[in-house]
Amino acid sequence: MKYDEIDHKLINELIEDGRISYVELAEKVGISRVAVKERIKVLKEEGVIEKFTITVNSEKFGKQVSAFFEVDVEPKQLQIVAQNLADNPNVASIYQMTGPSTLHMHVLVENFKKLEKFINDELYSVQGITRVESSILLKRFKSRVGYKL
């Protein structure tokens, strides 16, 4: 399906404020409330809009340490390891990357002691992982949440 400028405007407005009303959206993009509702319905049905959610400042909820991991996995174990890690409540996101069966993972924990515990007890103990490389986030300049079309 081809999306026009109005669809882009709708999505960008929803990125700014996912709780904006259909009436307000209609005013901002220049179409009727009914047309806004129908377009959003179609965008959801076609998978352009996956879901409506909120962004939580993890630091305000006690998750002070944000770490990123590159995790190399035995190819036969990739799906099992990925699901195992995805089920961990400390894992904010996990992606399969190009390369030798590599997973890219974002982890949020309360402090460095918890990060050490996560690495030693919950990451290194997973069978099938062959290499782990980590980086600690110092400062966030932009994240996907703010991505505009």
TrEMBL record:
UniProt keyword terms in alphabetical order: DNA-binding, Transcription, Transcription regulation
Superkingdom field: Bacteria
Residues annotated as domain HTH asnC-type: 3-64
The keyword DNA-binding belongs to this UniProt entry's keyword annotation: yes
Keyword Transcription among UniProt keywords: yes
SUPFAM superfamilies the record matches: Dimeric alpha+beta barrel (SSF54909), Winged helix' DNA-binding domain (SSF46785)
InterPro entries: ArsR-like_HTH (IPR011991), AsnC-type_HTH_dom (IPR000485), Dimeric_a/b-barrel (IPR011008), Tscrpt_reg_AsnC-like (IPR019888), Tscrpt_reg_AsnC/Lrp_C (IPR019887), Tscrpt_reg_HTH_AsnC-type_CS (IPR019885), WH-like_DNA-bd_sf (IPR036388), WH_DNA-bd_sf (IPR036390)
Pfam families: AsnC_trans_reg, HTH_24
Annotated CDD domains: HTH_ARSR
PANTHER family: LEUCINE-RESPONSIVE REGULATORY PROTEIN (PTHR30154), TRANSCRIPTIONAL REGULATOR AZLB (PTHR30154:SF34)
Protein name (database record): Lrp/AsnC family transcriptional regulator
